[in-house]
Write a structure and sequence with these properties.
The protein is an alpha+beta fold. The chain contains eight helices and four strands; from the N terminus they run αααααβααβββα. A hairpin with a 2-residue loop joins strand 3 (148-150) and strand 4. The structure holds FE2/S2 (inorganic) cluster.
């Protein structure tokens, strides 16, 4: 069923409010290309997450409406790929490098210790809202393997037993900055 002009204007206005002009324009460009709306979905979701840091329900609904793709399909793609985050990220993004050099040097045990300490797994945020844990590809500092990155700060040669002190360092920083 086609959308009437009036309805389309309402849909676009609501989506603009949710996504912002820049992303709405990107979606409009995608719709003009021949490849079909489906093929643009991942690119659009990347753009939305790059802007907001995560994909909220309201963002997914707006993307579905503007691309004219079923909402269930958009939600399915967003939840299929681990790099899409469906909830807001924490105060600190903590990445454990799972590249080959780090993996060989024990990154998995470091990641497990982070998970145990924070009570979360990949892609989740700690209950206090401070840490979101993500796996990372090679961070380009293989000589320091295994590597943990917190925001843009690199921690090298990390052992599982060093993880609590690293976390405490950022908790302390958050307290100083008045993070609730
Ligand atoms: S593999 Fe971890 S920094 Fe390169």
């Amino acid at each position: 069923m086609s959308i009437s002009t009036d309805n389309w204007e309402q849909v676009e206005a609501a989506a603009k409010a949710s996504l912002g002009d820049e992303i709405v324009q990107f979606i409009a460009q995608c719709r003009q290309e021949d490849a079909g709306a489906d093929s643009h979905l991942v690119a659009v979701l990347h753009r939305v997450q790059g802007h907001f840091g995560y994909l909220g329900e309201e963002h997914l609904d707006a993307v579905a409406q503007l691309l004219q793709v079923p909402a269930a399909k958009v939600a399915g793609v967003a939840s299929f790929y681990h790099y899409f985050r469906l909830k807001p990220r924490g105060r600190f993004l903590l990445s454990v490098c799972m590249g080959t050099a780090c993996y060989v040097k024990g990154a998995e045990r470091v990641a497990q210790r982070v998970m145990d300490e924070l009570g979360i797994t990949w892609g989740e945020t700690s209950k206090d809202g401070l840490f979101t844990l993500d796996p990372s590809r090679c961070l380009g500092t293989c000589g320091l393997a295994p590597v943990v990155m917190v925001e843009d700060e690199v921690h090298g040669n990390v052992t599982p037993d060093q993880v609590p002190a690293i976390l405490e360092q950022y908790r302390h920083r958050a307290r100083e900055q008045g993070h609730a």
